[in-house]
Amino acid sequence: MNTDSEPTNKCRKFYGHGIPGVRLEELTGRLIVVEGADGSGRSTQIARLVDSLETGGHPTVQVGLKRSTLVSSELEKAQEGNILSRTTLSLFYATDFADQLENIILPALKAGFIVLADRYIYTLMARDMVRGMDEAWLKNLYGIALEPDAVFYLSVEPQELVQRNLAKSATLDYWESGMDLGLSRDMFDSFVKYQTAIQAVFHSLQKTYGFNVVDANRSMDSVTKELRKKIAALLGET
Amino acid sequence: MKTFSELNFPGRLIAVEGLDGSGKSTQIYLLKRWLEAEGIKVYFSEWNSSELVKKATSKGKKRELLTPTTFSLIHATDFADRYERHLLPLLRAGYVVLCDRYVFTAFARDVVRGCPPEWVRGNYNFAAQPDLTIFFKADLEVSLSRILEGRPKLKFFEAGMDLGLSKDPYESFRIFQGHILEQYMAMSGEFDFVVMDANLHVEKQQVLVRKLVSERIELKKFKRRSPLPLPPPAPAEDRVEAADTEEDSAA
Fold first, then answer.
1. Is there a contact between B224 and B39 (Cβ–Cβ < 8 Å)?
2. Domains along chain A?
3. Is residue B95 part of a domain?
4. What DSSP state is assigned to residue B100?
5. E strand residue ranges, A113-221
6. In Å, how far is A142's CA from the nearest CA of chain B?
7. Does the ipTM exceed 0.85?
8. pLDDT band at B64, cuts 50/70/90?
9. Contact status of B188 with chain A (Cβ, < 8 Å)
10. Where does the pLDDT of residue B16 fall: very low under 50, low under 70, confident under 90, or very high at 90 and above?
11. B56 part of contact set with chain A, CB < 8 Å
């Protein structure tokens, strides 16, 4: 019985082994990912998308990194002390991701919701790849992840990102500046170098994962307009 | 999977594996006491013991928040933390590291929980193979009775209750441990386990363990050269005492 009111999704896929016991065809909602650095306008754009989607009658759920019930506070604490080595940090983030995937994303998709993910496995992979972790190892690890319906990568020049971050909080975040890598003692330099490296990795991942690259050097409004248009097309509302 | 010796680490890693109640923890403890008495640089590390991760794990277990996937990942996180911050530096420094459970516990347990074997193994592929892995094989009934006598109340995950094998925790525990034993036996050859008859008397087993370790590892290479912590420069009147400890370096 496949009518318009009870859609099934036949092209759902996990990237790899996936989560045992999940029936993919039951995941009828949509998973939309917004990726981009701090200062790329991710949170603002997601808030605006939630607004327009809900106004249009679509139920939404939001997820993001370090928001799991299971490990978010422990992960936060561990990062403050900067005492975790890279494999540990990587697996800790994967645990956080898996917890949200199984407890929020999959049930919401099954219930027909639109899930908006403020970052997904790509940021986690990019951060680790910049730190020299093995790409094949990461691909196996994140083989549990579900392929989203769309990934929007908000691309902003590092020089512009610096300006936006400083304008917002008058400081640069330790991790977003990649200070643990020792690229430069100067935080400004380190930020620019780190974000440039992250972008290069994102461009290489883009070839594998086929992101929609959105030029987010532009005004918030024009980015919102582009995102809304693309999502409407995805939902068949054009 | 290469051993630490094959990877030219100065140290050596010995792991014990087995079901709960197989007596492996007692054996590795007695092994540690012996090695310490012999003046060997020795370090002991237990599964699921990283300070950092333990809180999250116990919260997850208490509130039954864990799925097979997160159960597997959180234990991998714990292992990685101990591996990178303790085991690797100690092995570089020429220690004999004793591990009560190693990656094989995950290979067996997580797979019984339904995780794909290649995925689990892939996640742990940063870990080298122990130089010696002793598998304590007791009859299932022996292990079960040891556990059930000592701690009559079984924990939820320990009994494999998350798998829905049986409503009765004792029955669930039996089935779960039986499946884990099958997984262990299936990988025994691949990872070069030395299988120890854990039905034997405790002291007899320890004699065998010590013999095995001294045959497989050239222990005198791992003796402590200087007493720890390194003493501060001794004032004149303490010189005699300091001279006593120099014997160690002769070995």
1. yes
2. 29-58+118-230 (3.40.50.300)
3. yes
4. E
5. 114-118, 150-155, 212-215
6. 9
7. yes
8. confident
9. no
10. very high
11. yes
Q: Average pLDDT, stretch A74-78?
A: 82
Burial class (CB in 10 A: 0-12, 13-18, 19+), B250: exposed
| Contacts (Cβ under 8 Å, ≥6 apart) of B101 | B15, B16, B17, B46, B47
Report how far residue B221's alpha carbon sits from residue A175's, in angstroms, rounded to the nearest whole number. 42
Q: Is B57 exposed, middle or buried (0-12, 13-18, 19+ CB in 10 A)?
A: buried
**Could you tell me if residue B2 is inside a domain?**
no
Residue matched to tokens 């120890």: B196
For the stretch B107-120, pLDDT in tens is 999 999 999 999 99
A88 reaches B (C-beta below 8 A): yes
Residue B25 lies in a domain: yes
Q: Is the residue at B167 inside a domain?
A: yes
Residue-number span of the structural domain to which B30 is assigned: 12-217
Looking at the structure of chain B, the number of domains it has is 1
- Please provide the average confidence, as pLDDT, over all residues in chain B: 89
**The pTM is what?**
0.87
CATH of the domain at B141: 3.40.50.300
Gap between the Cα atoms of A86 and B80, Å rounded: 9
Q: How far, in Å, CA of A32 to CA of A153, rounded?
A: 11
B17-45 confidence digits (pLDDT tens): 999 889 999 999 999 999 999 999 999 99
B223 secondary structure, DSSP code: B
Taking only the tens place, the pLDDT of each residue in A131-167 is 999 999 999 999 999 999 999 999 999 999 999 999 9
How many Cβ contacts (< 8 angstroms) between chains A and B? 87
Kindly state the tokens that stand for A66. Answer: 């370090």
In this complex, do B74 and A94 lie within 8 Å of one another by their Cβ atoms? Answer: no
How many other C-beta atoms are found inside a 10 Å radius of the C-beta of residue A224? 18
